[in-house]
Every structure is written in structure tokens, then in C-alpha cells.
Amino acid sequence: MATSVKQMLEAANAAVPKITSEQAAEMINKGNTLVVDVRDAPEVAASGKIAGAVNVSRGMLEFRADPESPYHDKAFDKSKTVILYCASGGRSALAGKLLKDMGYENVYNVGGFKDWTGSVEK
């Protein structure tokens, strides 16, 4: 059965809790947290990113998050809380669902970069 983007987003939003920038800041302050910007490099170059965030475009996420991949990024650790964001929240929701499917348990979607602006230092 074919799946539409709408259905994929509904499933992702059901699996990955949406949090506010204030909740994200609290999690970051507690430590053992990875913040991931899943936008493409030109988007990040144009607007910047959250201080301390790792930029991994959504298309490379599986490769960076899998410890058995030759492209694994050591910042990805299943014991960490993972907070994702993108431009408007769709890609970060899908990325969160992907990480959950890969065995990451504490995964949250803060939504879009604009949701952070003014709440968390860039």
C-alpha cells in the first residue's frame, strides 16, 4: 500500500513528541543532549544554526546515526536525548521517526528554526 507524505507526517508526529524551545533549552541544560539541524547546508549557511547543534541533512541522517556505517558521526549516541529541528518542522518530524525506528529512544521535535529564534541563543 502506498503511503503519502501526509500519512508519513501523521505517523511521525504521533511517534515523536513536539516540544517548545523552552523545553528544549531545559533538556540541553541538563546535559547528555544532541541537537540536530536536519536542514541542507545552503539553508544553514544562509541563516545560521543553534549554538552547539550538529548539522546533518536529512538525506544523510541514517548514515551518520548508524554506528556500523562508515559515515557514522560519534556525536550520535543512543543514550543521549536527541532534539531535532529543520525549517518548519516537517523534516525534523520525519527524521525523528527515522531515529526512533533505528533504536533511539529519547527523540524530540522542536519544529522549525524560526521557533527557536529569540528563545535560544543562535
TrEMBL record:
<dbReference type="InterPro" id="IPR036873">
    <property type="entry name" value="Rhodanese-like_dom_sf"/>
</dbReference>
<feature type="domain" description="Rhodanese">
    <location>
        <begin position="29"/>
        <end position="121"/>
    </location>
</feature>
<protein>
    <submittedName>
        <fullName>Rhodanese-related sulfurtransferase</fullName>
    </submittedName>
</protein>
<dbReference type="InterPro" id="IPR001763">
    <property type="entry name" value="Rhodanese-like_dom"/>
</dbReference>
<dbReference type="Pfam" id="PF00581">
    <property type="entry name" value="Rhodanese"/>
</dbReference>
